[in-house]
Amino acid sequence: MNLKTRGIKSTLALILTAMVILTACSGNAKTNGNAASGQNNAATGSASPQSSTDTASTGSFKLWEGWTATVNNNSLVQEYWRTELGLDVKIEATQGDALTALNLKLNSGGFDDAAIFNRGQVVNDAMKRSNLIQPLEQYFNMPEKYPNLAAIPKEYLDQMKDADGHIWSIPSWFDKDLSNPWPNWASSAWYIRTDILEKVGMTENDLKTLQGVETYLEKAAQLKDESGKKLLPLGILTDAYDENVVLATFGVTVGSAGGVTPVQKDGDNFIFEFDHPGFKAAYKWMNSMYHKKLIDPEALTDKKERYKEKNKSGRYAMNIGAFWNFDQYIWETLDGPTAPGWYYKPIPYPQLEGVAQLGAIQIVNPYPGFDTYISKNTKNLDAILKFYDYTLTPKPEQNQSITEGPVGKYWDWIDQPYGKWKFTDPKYKEMRNSGDPAKKAQVTPDLWQLTTYSNEWYAWWNYGESEHAGFAKTAEFTKQIGQMGTTRVAENYDMVKAKAGGVWEKYTPELDKVYKEYRAKLMMAKDDAKFEQVWNDFTSALEKRAHWSELKQEWNVLYQEMNNK
């Protein structure tokens, strides 16, 4: 996988919802782990684990999670499922590597009832080869019995059918509306400090063009920070590939949806990232800014912690990149303009002559992210199907209802439905937000993976009880950035995967090495002549070391094969 394609990480969501959406047990480089103790208490009266025979009663089944988690089957949310829905869901978490655990489980007779894993070809193939799961396509055509399973968008189900028309899993964590998907946590943009903008006598309107941005940086370079040091005009963390924002400004797509490389469509042709004319132009601009001392000279060597400290102390007049990298806490922990972080604000991408469309940074993939497989030996099929028919209820708040209980139980609207909300049970809130996985597990299993999402309403963009006024800025920023033109819905060409033994599998590591080596040389080249020499060396290295032409050729073959399926 191209190391430049960064997963969208939401620290806010990690704290509040453990929403590590892009985790992939198949070895995806975007994986984020979920620390846990592995506690697994019984869901019914006793505190001892249940045996497989204990789940044979009506409405009861075991759900094996394909990730590490702290489990307490006596949680308040699960108690609601038992008493109000008649569904006793006993959760079992994975300990250690998910694929290793899966292989061990399948080789020892399989799981008892149901198993949910991150969507991935490796897992799907292993499940089907095991001959331990059952096909499920018939249950998506029973609207009188399972109306919400029948309401799953046909596009998602059609994609899941094998050559014989079988569907082997229940999909979940998908967008209810393919035509207008939720953009997720967009964070990459140009950020100014409004206090510095005011000091140099400029307005946001002056920053509509790249030339206007340069003028701002030149003026800001003459100012000093609170400690008396000269301001650093522009901060960028290349260690986290934040130069992607500049590339997107020059029209270069830098994101994919799990594909081997960023690609953009141009009529009937495809343009690969390194071949786009804007790629060279973007680095020429960064090279110019570097030599004018308008980019932090340590941009190529700083690590995240040092970069965060510079932002916290107010060293920069402007930043480009993802706000998670320069630390959203610099405003989330404030109640007013008491520190530099309060003045941060994303601005629209500056316009550039000759660039009609911005490149895509964030590719939104509305397709299912998780699959639940059902054992062919389960005695609790109806209970499983009824539970998923409940979790996949197509209501905007259903994700919140599954993780925190239904509206009115432990949380409620502050003013009106689909507006701000708050926790209404003080004890639940205390345990839920304690930061202690064991305490959180006492109130909720946090199974957001079993639900859906949409643009209609997202809970953590509407949380109404934050401790500090600055907390709301993060959600406001991400909504603004999502509308700036660098976020789009995934197309087939964004999802072209490497084949086993192919050239992408063989040469991707070297491709990444070449890029990382030459981006620094391009940015630091001492003059125009040296820049041209470095550029020629870069394109030569792409061919000789990374086999760039072979990679593109195989990509086209893989794309055609994918479309012919």
UniProtKB/TrEMBL annotation:
Signal is among the record's keywords: yes
Domain of life (superkingdom): Bacteria
TM helices/strands, residue ranges: none
Record field: compositional bias (Low complexity): 34-48
Record keywords: Signal
Keyword Signal: yes
Region Disordered: start-end pairs: 34-55
Signal peptide interval: 1-29
Matching Gene3D superfamilies: Periplasmic binding protein-like II
PANTHER family (alphabetical): ARABINOSE-BINDING PROTEIN-RELATED (PTHR43649), DIACETYLCHITOBIOSE BINDING PROTEIN DASA (PTHR43649:SF12)
Protein name per the record: ABC transporter substrate-binding protein
Organism name: Cohnella suwonensis
Classification of source organism: Bacteria, Bacillati, Bacillota, Bacilli, Bacillales
